[in-house]
Design brief:
2 copies of one chain form a homodimer. With 328 residues, chain A is an alpha/beta fold. Chain A has 11 helices and 14 strands. Chain A is globular. At the A-B interface, helix 1, helix 3, helix 4, strand 13 and helix 10 of A face helix 1, helix 3, helix 4, strand 13 and helix 10 of B.
Amino acid sequence: MSTRIGILGYGNLGRGVECAIRQNKDMELAAVFTRRAPETVSILTEGVAVHQIGTAADFRDRIDVMVLCGGSATDLPVQTVEYAKYFNVVDSFDTHARIPEHFEGVDAAAKEGGHVAVISAGWDPGMFSLNRLYAGAVLPEGKDYTFWGRGVSQGHSDAVRRIAGVKNAKQYTVPVPAALASVRAGENPELTTRQKHTRECFVVLEEGADAARVEQEIKTMPNYFADYDTTVHFISEEELLTNHSGIPHGGVVIRSGVTGWEKEHKHVVEYQLKLDSNPEFTASVLVACARAAHRLSLEGVTGCKTLFDIAPAYLSAKSGEELRKSLL
Amino acid sequence: MSTRIGILGYGNLGRGVECAIRQNKDMELAAVFTRRAPETVSILTEGVAVHQIGTAADFRDRIDVMVLCGGSATDLPVQTVEYAKYFNVVDSFDTHARIPEHFEGVDAAAKEGGHVAVISAGWDPGMFSLNRLYAGAVLPEGKDYTFWGRGVSQGHSDAVRRIAGVKNAKQYTVPVPAALASVRAGENPELTTRQKHTRECFVVLEEGADAARVEQEIKTMPNYFADYDTTVHFISEEELLTNHSGIPHGGVVIRSGVTGWEKEHKHVVEYQLKLDSNPEFTASVLVACARAAHRLSLEGVTGCKTLFDIAPAYLSAKSGEELRKSLL
């Protein structure tokens, strides 16, 4: 059985999904949908067409799962609900605080349409969430820690770029080594925002811009930087392109807990990701979830699911027998 | 809803299950079953009785899940099949090569009895297996590595104890730091058995035993030590009891894989456990699986399951809403 995938939205994430499909023999790319003029969008896969987003619903018989590759701020809250009427869908909705609300809306739409919708797939939410759940289920008495980085935060980079006098910028989120070491040692520290992460900015100035003023504006920016120790490096545009054009990310989820009649034994469970490409890894999770969505749908399941609700075997191309023999 | 647990077999693992039940408010210990004379077995929980193993089947209406705490060599191959007729069961069967065969036998028995049987729960097989599956599903092109330790291997400790002249012994399995560093760096090394782990033995000699001969016998023992670099320390019985009476263990599962149209991006996924008590952590996984077994059974599911077949949310005491709100 092959799963026919549609990609809706062709930015970094959409391109990542296209690459991931090529790595999975049971997947095939059926079509790409875009808001841009289709003839201006050139994709990597030969023989696959790009269509106007408005025509997507016409493809409902030719696509098993539509992978929605828009953003969480404005695209997905509308698109996932809309396309769950026509397709099994997968999204990477990552506004943690709004997940319950997103779930409710998508669940109703998917049930109405008779489809499976997997939301909030990726690594956080996604693989990190799974590890928080498993570790907490096994060690009910303990404490969770999540560290992000070292990696590029798109939102923080954008915030720096919006400052007057800034031509271009990249922002890295960096875990504080001492905090990480203390957590790994099972010391269960109480950590403030400032104690967990630092922020590092590489900034290209417009000609004649005042570096001291830009640095001050970055470091005092509320929500984004004011609560962190931030380092600002002014570099040339050439250096930015040479050394900071990638989109690496990653991080660590740790649960430190106790067992025993007197809680005398300590355990530390750690899950770590080191990713050269944040969007390609996220896309790879989306494609595994698309496989699961297709299978669940074939079994007659409908409604909204997260990785919490999906038996792990559904994500793998291997059969139950193969999995038990080779990975258990 | 409370889950009434029976414990069958009261050694380190059974006692670990008893401790884990106390940490989970939705679980209660219903009874303990033993091969020994029940009056000689004293348990930690007040008001719970110890019964002869032969009477277990009489308790089928008073126990929701029987957790089987025997060994994989001779107990579980017989017991899990037997008790799946009367109860939902959970076991920690860990003879990797024989899991497919164990699965088949237990599946037939559980279906016949109308019960759910979760086999091979623990950390390897168990949490490590889950992480191999997830990482492989997300990164289909890559390489898996599993390192065990630093931790006590019961089987290797027993093997040393069987040597003439050895009064007592503990064996630690230790990952080779350089091998681990290379894997973590995404270098995908090919590693021999000797390059992955070393073995460290702490040995108490009988009076008058020949240390050189014992050391030679350990280091050349086929299967157990001959393929490894082994260090032997001769210590006093007092030192063994003071410094080596714990049962710590742990290890690391790493998958290193690539994504991108030209496979140009590297990703490293790592899952690490550092456990003060191997049996208590294993027991904690068994109890989370008992919760899942009970829930699946209430939904009408029957047959043999592994962690691969269980949606993660079933393991947690939290509701779907709580999980999405707090952990996703």
